[in-house]
Amino acid sequence: MSKDMITGAEALMRSLEHQGVDTLFGYPGGSIMPVFDALYDHRNTLNHILVRHEQGAAHAAQGFARVSGKVGVCLVTSGPGATNTVTGIADAMIDSTPLVVIAGQVATSFLGTDAFQEVDLVGITQPIAKWSYQIRRAEDVAWAVARAFYIARSGRPGPVVLDFAKNAQVEKTKYEPTVVDFVRSYVPVPAIDMEAVKAAAELINQSERPFVLVGQGVELGHAQCELRAFIEKADLPAGRTLLGLSALPTDHPLNKGMLGMHGNLGPNINTNKCDVLIAVGMRFDDRVTGNLETYAKQAKVIHFDIDPAEIDKNVKTDVAVLGDCKQTLAAVTALLKENKHTKWIDSFKEYEQVEEEKVVRLELHPATEALSMGEVARAVSEATNHEAVLVTDVGQNQLLAARYFKYKKERSIVTSGGLGTMGFGLPAAIGATFGAPERTVCAFMGDGGLQMNLQELGTVMEQRAPVKIICLNNNYLGNVRQWQAMFFNRRYSFTPMMNPDYMQIAAAYRIPSRRVFTRQELGEAVCEMLATDGPFLLEVCVVEEGNVLPMTPPGGSVNQMLLEC
Asked: I want to staple 431 with a disulfide (CB 3.0 to 4.6 A). Which of 64, 141, 164, 347 is the partner?
């Protein structure tokens, strides 16, 4: 069968369509212009969202991927266009988000000459991507795209970078749809070791105080049902990481709360009291473990993970159950005895009561006239029947929103976990509205984070993206200020912040808005926000020197949480 000769740019369009792509985020420029010209003829099948900055494109693609389970795609030009995506690529790598970044590049004849907007993108991104590759010939396009999507979405997901030389965009090639399902030396899903499965089941069956740590891997592996079957059969209490919060419904009786530096008291203290610690799809990062020298030393450790590199990286494992947790959890569950751990589970109640009295009640029902971040988050969560997608920026807004939101549905939290990227929230929320158009997307951010990618309000305006933006304005870089208060003698070095009039900014972008100062106004304002079609900016003026509690001090033991500042 004869094949038409088409340009490399057109081959890219057809390859994206072949991969099932229907949405991409980008920004045109000189070295990617032939691709954007080809895109003009594919507007009916490929919905390109014009962002206002390439970092916004990367984060929007992340938000899209996180709620949809699909690969996020962004399309940018060379030089600064490409380097502007680096933060998003690094963020996607550490948080295991499937992403394909396609960047223009100067023609191969100019490579190495310091040509206009030339930069070694492959060299820059190799340490922060699953795969980085330069396409120098039109005939390589179909193969490179197929390989990129296979690597991005398979195994432990992550970002892939394609550096697309301009000559390869305009040269002609014969196109044939290409499938890649094998890459030499790349094993995306390790084979299940039944001996490890048996050993894990035996440890759990013998345990008196088991404790499960639920990570984002459960969401990525679509293993939410398998997780519930696993914990319910053996009566296993569970804590969740920040990115794993919606893998288990908030109101599940075995859900004992959030892990980590600003997590709940019970899960953190009982981490150092359990006899078997069962980690599922989480990587034992420092914000969860605190001081490794004192972390769960009394426990046997079982680690379920798809990535062998995570085993023994931070915490020594007694049994490693490698593989896709959808399969490995089911395999272990089949060998579990039905059990009850009533006394052990009841031990969490004491800590819940202490935290309720000393932290939660004060946050949700503060004695001050000023609103707290936590009560705002809870009000929005309740008004959405706990079914919204929570997108956060980074800082106090992130931690308090995550703590006081409740989760009924899976894939309901989108936040920057490992990299902690301020400016993530707004573009990620835009992406989430395209990835889950049927859901309400509520984006919490501080006055600092909102201003880091404020230009993406232009994207919101143009697309009428129905992002419900809640700006928690405390006139500080709140998280840094809290640390300065606690550990630097209240020396507020460059954390007080002069802010613009967000109502005027919203008006300039033709986004409905409202500012709230008092508790009496809050409920009505939240209802107005949710009842408004399309986007809305709700600025809530909150207490200036509020704190996120409890807190494990940096370098402290996970069971030594501060309940007050």
From this structure: 64
**328 and 381 share a domain?**
no
- Among the candidates 313, 348, 383, a domain finishes at 348
Give the structural domain span for 314.
Answer: 194-348
The whole-number pLDDT of residue 565 equals 81
| Each residue's pLDDT tens digit, 442-461 | 999 999 999 999 999 999 99
Same domain membership, residue 239 and residue 167: no
Residue-wise pLDDT for 366-423, tens only, equals 998 999 999 999 999 999 999 999 999 999 999 999 999 999 999 999 999 999 999 9
Is 565 inside any structural domain?
no
* Rounded-to-integer distance, Cα 92 and Cα 89, Å: 5
pLDDT value at 1 more than 70: no
Check residue 3 and give its pLDDT: 72
The residues, any chain, with a CB within 8 Å of residue 559's CB and separated by 6 or more, are: 268, 269, 271, 272, 273, 294
**Residues 537, 428 share a domain:** yes
**DSSP secondary structure, 331-367, as one string:** HHHHHPPP---HHHHHHHHHHHHHHIIIIIHHHHS-S
CB-based contact 280:212 (threshold 8 Å): yes
The answer to the question of residue 550 being in a domain is no
- Whether residue 374 is found in the same domain as residue 260: no
The answer to whether residue 106 sits within a structural domain is yes
- 330 with 213, same domain: the answer is yes
The overall average pLDDT reported for the chain is 97
- Report yes or no on 179 lying in a domain: no
Which tens digits make up the pLDDT trace of 184-235? 999 999 999 999 999 999 999 999 999 999 999 999 999 999 999 999 999 9
Does residue 159 surpass a pLDDT of 70? yes
Closest CA to 381 of 421, 413, 427: 413
Q: Alpha carbon 443 to chain centroid distance? A: 13
Whether residue 92 sits in one domain with residue 30: yes
Residue 485: burial class (beta carbons within 10 Å; 0-12, 13-18, 19+)? middle
Q: Where are the alpha helices (DSSP H) in 361-424?
A: 361-364, 373-383, 396-404
**Side-by-side strand order, sheet with 276-280:** 255-258, 238-240, 210-214, 276-280, 300-305, 319-322
Q: Which two tokens stand for residue 421?
A: 């990227």
CATH code assigned at 295: 3.40.50.1220
Q: What are the CA-CA distances from residue 193 to residues 134, 200, 308, 322 (Å)?
A: 37, 11, 13, 7
Q: What's the pLDDT at 296?
A: 98
Kindly state whether residues 411 and 531 are assigned to the same domain. yes
How far, in Å, CA of 24 to CA of 14, rounded? 14
CATH number of the domain enclosing 59: 3.40.50.970
pLDDT band for position 283 (cuts 50, 70, 90): very high
**Predicted confidence (pLDDT) per residue in 242-259, tens digit:** 999 999 999 999 999 999
Q: 432: pLDDT confidence band, cut at 50, 70 and 90? A: very high
- Total domains in the chain come to 3
Q: What percent of the chain has pLDDT over 90?
A: 99
Output the CA torsion sign for 339, 343, 344, 345: positive
- Quote the tokens at residue 220: 């990525």
Do 533 and 396 share a structural domain? yes
